[in-house]
Design goal:
By secondary structure, the protein is mostly beta strands. The chain is built from six helices and 43 strands.
Amino acid sequence: MPGGAALAQSATPVTELPTVEAVGTTPLTATGLPRDHVPGNPRSLSAADLSRDGPPNLVDNLVRLSAGIAVNDTQGSPLAPDVSYRGFTASPLMGTPQGLAVYQNGTRINEAFGDTVNWDLIPSIAIRNVDLVGSSPLFGLNAVGGALNLRMKTGFDSPGGRVDISGGSFGRIGVAAEYGKQVGDFAAYLAIESLNEDGWRNVSPSRAKRLYGDIGFRGERSTLNLSIGAGSTAISGNGPTPLQILSTDRNAVFTYPDRTYNRMQMLQLRGTYELAANWSIEANAYVRTFRQRTLNADIGEFEGCDDDDFAGLLCFEDGPPVTARGGGTVSADILGGGVPGVVNRTGTNTTGAGGSAQIVSTEPIFGLPSRVVFGVSYDHADTDFYGNTELGVLSPTRTVGNLGVFVNSPDGGIADVRLNSTNNYWGVYGTGTIDLAPRVSAMIGGRFNNADIRLRDQLGTALNGDHTYSRFNPTAGLTWRALDTVTAYVSYAEANRAPTPAELSCADPLIPCTLGAFFLADPALKQVVSRTWETGVRGTLPSAWIGGRTTWNIGVFRTDLSDDILLVQSEIQGRGYFQNAGDTRRQGIEAGLAWRNARWALGLDYAFIDATFRTAQRLPSPNHPDAGADGAIPVERGDRIPGIPQHRVRLDAEWRATDRWRMGGTLIFNSDQYLRGDEANLLKPLAGYAVVNLRTAVTLMPGIELYGIVRNLFDQRYSNFGTLYGLDAASALNMNLTDARTVVPGMPRAFYGGLRFTF
């Protein structure tokens, strides 16, 4: 296993770690290809990897899985990060263009309305294995950059129990527990997680509760599992803060509150059946509900009307008078001389259902070993969405006191929204891998995707629309096992991403929507198409050479996107809209080297990711200090895409001092990146940074382990996300802000500890 994944271990000696030999190449995961037959560089995490540093944590360990993975603290909450792989993102933030597909037991868990991924609802302790693969059409819509496939635990593969109690800096208290039991052909598994913390920034508490359970049956030729998942979270993600404010108070927030409340329930039935010696069928079906409520406070761009005809009324800046819900104008006296603010609220209610099935054959073809898969999938979701804006007054601490008046001014770009969307996604796919020679395997496959999206305005007809997107995406690859321990590969894949209902509902520059909140227009967008080439070599060295097991990999990739979709800023503060932005490219190099023996584990992983625009254009960025009279900046071919550092390094070391005590550390380095809103690369980028984390664990007695963790050992002051703010809007606060750059501060030094009990 290459890179940082080779270092992962549990309390048992590293030499006893099992190696995952098969990789799931389709969302359904009962069967997979041997790793040396996969024409790519898949990465894997086991359950032991996820809890190596303490409490099980999927996102933190994804960062160590590959230098190609980075995390942006877009909202400033540990429960709601942006996770990017090769420059493509899976984010919980509505408005972030999504480029990764995420599956749980074969069910796609990108939310139907915006393809967002809510990491806070995934129970890390219940994950048995994670596969990360590059772009593949077999994973359906949104896999333009890659796919993350989660396999959950059952009572068959995870017997016994474990309780993990942890706590530490910023008021963090966490509990995770699991128990699995097999009785004959039946087994049951249950896991729960709870986390509460105050957050490393002011007024930024978060909490999460998660549950996962599974009941299963295994017969001689069949398996059947019924699983249930549930989650409830409350996240305070108060977003970026102007640099000038952070220079005096690193924990400061700009305006608050910014809260998100999520609830999810999912019921899933899945099974396999052996039809014959070399034929099997696998299927799943699910029902899933998702409920989200958001509340966001911000500065309001209102002022007393200058026009004598509207004297005494409240107006949009350089715009028409403000009208309230139900009709009628709003008096300027309502603000009492205070600074105007707004409270934006949204609600999303989604119910989804669907399933997939595939037939797998390992029947030889022309006498040659082979594996052939044919499958179908269908996903349906109904979403009811609402959004509104309430007028308020900013307090001296920059929170907003609401006034009970709801703004409904379509001419000013702010109006109530009620929208119903229906998604119908279906796909047909197939792939075949055949051993052309004892050391050479060829793979060919493809998938046809069809997406039907229906939008119905519940307050009028402006949002009504029917959209259909379809495409066949091919893939092919070749692997050559040059030696028993060396594999070379080359592959090509196409994939597509259909615009989401959220994007289709927010694509008009004349009527922008609140960023990540609600939507006011319905022009059509083109689907995004990716074309990916990948080649490389990976392998192991004999342990006799240097007294331990060495794994290594080096590869290059290029993904070209046509009609990429971006969220661009509007002239109205805090609002934006989606548009197709021509062609973009992500290309780079990934390399890893890891060595381990009974006492030591060392690993170095490096990624170079060159993410650029390939189409010259003018992109709206009205908050940019160099924006033209049209509020846009000139983006040239070759300009870097913001938010993606070019160079990433992961260095990990662990030493088992005794059979009971181990200690280790990780160095994470990310180079500089441009701020969102600076697509033309005209401003000074966010500085690169290096963070050192330490860990240690000691077995007090059989079944009881004490562990400790230090994050950001040297208290590095850094930021991994930044954007631009409207100085005109902020001028009402009389804070003398002259720098439009706003960032989310990275987490300062933190200490955590805990106890783990196994039985």
